[in-house]
Design brief:
The protein is α/β, with parallel strands linked by helices and about 240 residues long. It has five helices and eleven strands, in the order E-E-E-E-E-H-E-E-H-E-E-H-E-H-E-H. The protein has helices spanning about 80-90, 120-135, 175-185, 200-210, 225-235; strands at about 5-15, 20-25, 35-40, 55-60, 70-75, 95-100, 110-120, 140-145, 165-170, 190-195, 220. The termini are far apart. This is Ferredoxin--NADP+ reductase. InterPro entries: FNR_nucleotide-bd (IPR039261), Riboflavin_synthase-like_b-brl (IPR017938).
Length: about 240
């Protein structure tokens, strides 16, 4: 297993309790849009066994053209040991990346794509939207719907509707409005639906989409292949 040690280049306050850590790109480190990586802190591999408490699965919120690896995460006042240590890191400190993979690449099949996300889960979709805006070939339309009860919506400079490129972005701050919108989007029986959020969020969205006629092969979730079918097969229970 290749472990890439790299340094924090910049720390951005995206919103209250949300930060983006921009990391230097190690030589030979590559990724696709929609990728997640194992993000580890110093000491995670110091013993005989890896300290899993110092490792988290994180989405990469940037594209390669931006020249940095972005990790965007929520940093609550009361948080885990991992987040507490991360809060104390500064520009120049080292972190590790390994096992990078994408479960939700942008599908260029000529269909409309709907991006459904909750809170900071929008970070997973940021690279997909940038990739699409840079090249709209073989995608008829992209619509993003994000729910964030904090009302501190993220990446509004990018998630900004652009009719010229058939891109629409929508933010809501409550579940009632959110699920009403999902029901309306599901009227497109030929669309592709990407979902990113907590496990409960995934289950609720999948169930609603299936109840409105969307099939499992139209749904993409940011989960390992071994977990995907468990989410998609249990959604109507």
């Amino acid at each position: 297993m290749q472990i890439y040690w790299t340094k924090i280049n910049k720390i951005i306050d995206e919103a209250p309790e949300v930060k983006t850590y921009l990391l230097d790109c190690p030589e030979a480190f590559t990724w696709e849009e929609g990728s997640h990586t194992h993000f580890a802190l110093q000491g995670f591999n110091a013993g005989d066994k890896p300290n899993r408490g110092l490792v988290r699965h994180m989405s990469i919120s940037t594209i390669t053209d931006e020249g940095a690896i972005g990790i965007t995460t929520r940093m609550k006042a009361q948080c885990s040991e991992f987040k507490s240590i991360l809060k104390g890191l500064q520009v120049g400190d080292e972190v590790a990346l390994f096992k990078t993979h994408t479960n939700v690449p942008l599908q260029r099949t000529g269909k409309k794509i709907y991006l459904l996300s909750s809170g900071v889960g929008l970070a997973t979709f940021r690279p997909l939207v940038l990739n699409y805006l840079n090249n709209i070939d073989q995608v008829s339309h992209v619509h993003s719907l994000n729910i964030d009860s904090t009302k501190h919506f993220l990446f509004t400079n990018i998630f900004n509707s652009d009719p010229r490129k058939n891109f629409t972005a929508q933010f809501v701050d409550n579940r009632t409005d959110y699920y009403k919108e999902v029901e309306q989007l599901a009227a497109d029986q030929d669309g592709l639906f990407y979902i990113v959020g907590s496990d409960d969020f995934l289950v609720q969205n999948i169930k609603l989409l299936r109840e409105h006629g969307i099939t499992t092969d139209q749904i993409a979730i940011d989960k390992h292949e071994s977990q995907i079918m468990s989410f998609l097969s249990n959604d109507l229970q």
